[in-house]
Amino acid sequence: MNNLTNIKVLKPANEVFEAFVDPLKIGNFWFSSSSERWEQGKSITLRYDEYDAQGDIEVMEIEVNKKIVFQWGPPEEEHVVTILLKELDHASTIIEIKEEGFKENDGELISKLLDNKEGWVYMLTCLKGYLEYGVNLRAALVK
């Protein structure tokens, strides 16, 4: 089972792509830090300083300015995330995020899907704020 989330950002695909893969930019909308530039085949450590947490991802596929695929989560619950960038013109991009790997027989499936969707919507909203207005909303969510 998968979860799909979309948003339109008023920036070209190359700027959106760089926001994800550049460790100097990702801290403005998603994680506090990224250990290095995202490239196919690399293992990247992502940190959330405000939660004193970190996790690793495996970058499975990169298509510059178009697609990022990575795997994350504990071995028994690994998920694959695909980020597609669809440039509409030279000034706007649709970002589509699909996370796969949810187990249909999981008794907590609905809760996990809702939490997952909330996370992607929040991250994409922060990305939009950062790219379009230069604001950092990243650490504003309180759970």
Provide a descriptive summary of the structure in words.
- The chain has 143 residues and is an alpha+beta fold.
- The chain has a single domain, classed as Alpha-D-Glucose-1,6-Bisphosphate, Chain A, domain 4 (2-Layer Sandwich), CATH 3.30.530.20.
- Helices cover 24% and strands 37% of the residues.
- The chain has two helices and seven strands; from the N terminus they run βαββββββα.
- Strands 1-7-6-5-4-3-2 form a seven-stranded antiparallel β-sheet, covered by helices on one side.
- It is globular, with a radius of gyration of 15 Å.
Number of strands: 7
Anisotropy-based shape: globular
CATH topology-level name: Alpha-D-Glucose-1,6-Bisphosphate, Chain A, domain 4
Strand content: 35-45%
The mean pLDDT is 93
Head-to-tail CA distance between termini: 25 Å
Domain Activator of Hsp90 ATPase homologue 1/2-like C-terminal: 12-132
Pfam family, one: AHSA1
InterPro entries: ASHA1/2-like_C (IPR013538), START-like_dom_sf (IPR023393)
Protein name: SRPBCC family protein
Fold blueprint:
Layout (H helix, E strand, L loop, with lengths): L1 E8 L3 H9 L11 E2 L8 E6 L4 E11 L3 E6 L6 E11 L2 E9 L8 H25 L10
Antiparallel strand pairs: 1-7, 2-3, 3-4, 4-5, 5-6, 6-7
